[in-house]
Amino acid sequence: PEVAVTGQVLETLPPIGVFWDIENCSVPSGRSATTVVQRIREKFFRGHREAEFICVCDISKENKEVIQELNNCQVTVAHINATAKNAADDKLRQSMRRFANTHTAPATVVLVSTDVNFALELSDLRHRHGFHIILVHKNQASEALMHHANQLIRFEEFISDLP
To answer: How far apart are alpha carbons 68 and 64 in whole angstroms?
Structure first.
């Protein structure tokens, strides 16, 4: 494909969506959310156009600096009420479904989570929609979740050398 110079060429690049369960895979203290976002974009976005980059959390419980950095990076920060059970998961699943309804293969979905609750969603995105699934997960991720990804990346390794 051509190098994306004009808006039209950019539109021909396959879309990529990042769905980050930040309460599950949080920014380590002393590290910046900005560098995590930059690392995700550098590692996965080549040959794609960013169609979605969403992070779900309870803003009142998350570090204010992290929220500010995410906003500065043009990441959509979706607020959920932490007292509602699985509210973050539900919101992320809803966003992933919306992405699947808006985009077609060859699209890529990057899920940053270790929560097994996303297994069905990933399966659907991969097998029914034909999307490429990248799962960035912590060491204790379940086989059921990892089974549905085309590519597995350990969160701890992914962020280990960040400044």
So the answer is: 6
Nearest-angstrom CA–CA distance, 32 and 43: 17
HSE-up of 150 (CA within 13 Å, CB side)? 14
Mean of all residue pLDDT scores within the chain: 92
- DSSP state, 28? P
pTM to 2 decimals?
Answer: 0.91
Residue 57, H or E segment: strand 49-57
d(CA 26, CA 21): 8
pLDDT digits (tens, 9 = 90+) for 4-16: 455 555 568 999 9
At 154, give phi and psi (nearest 5°): -80, 125
Q: How far apart are CA 90 and CA 26, in angstroms?
A: 18
Q: Is-contact 75 40, C-beta < 8 A?
A: no
- Amino acid found at 158: F
Alpha helices in 15-160 (DSSP H): 33-44, 64-72, 87-102, 119-123, 143-146, 155-160
